[in-house]
């Protein structure tokens, strides 16, 4: 993992450690389950989340939300570097004709706390299309309980 962290700009890994805790705590609060085994402190949990064998991706609370986290599987699937990811509006992960359906699920998650069973087609930075299945989308809050965006996780996708 240290090689990966060395590629990150100053401060990003530290932000991702804190954000990983927000992701894990918010997921548990929304669903009543743990996204992955917990323990070992924030740094160890952030390392495990980054290396998890499933996608975890999130965006912030901006009017046009910008991606702010993607674990290794998410980065590989969307074919982005960490710096590309954190500069990408979340809406651009879906093709234009499919963005309305995506927005409806995000709104449902905002209203209900989380949505499970979401599926849809996404597009990587290079234009590679893939279908995701059985995704969970949840609202993310910071350690003070303030809204911090939304996140999604899924372990099933098929390239189209």
From TrEMBL:
Q: Which domain of life is it from?
A: Bacteria
Query: Per its UniProt record, what InterPro entries does this chain match?
Result: MEKHLA
Ranges for domain MEKHLA come to 18-159
User: What protein does this entry describe?
Assistant: MEKHLA domain-containing protein
Q: Which Pfam families match?
A: MEKHLA (PF08670)
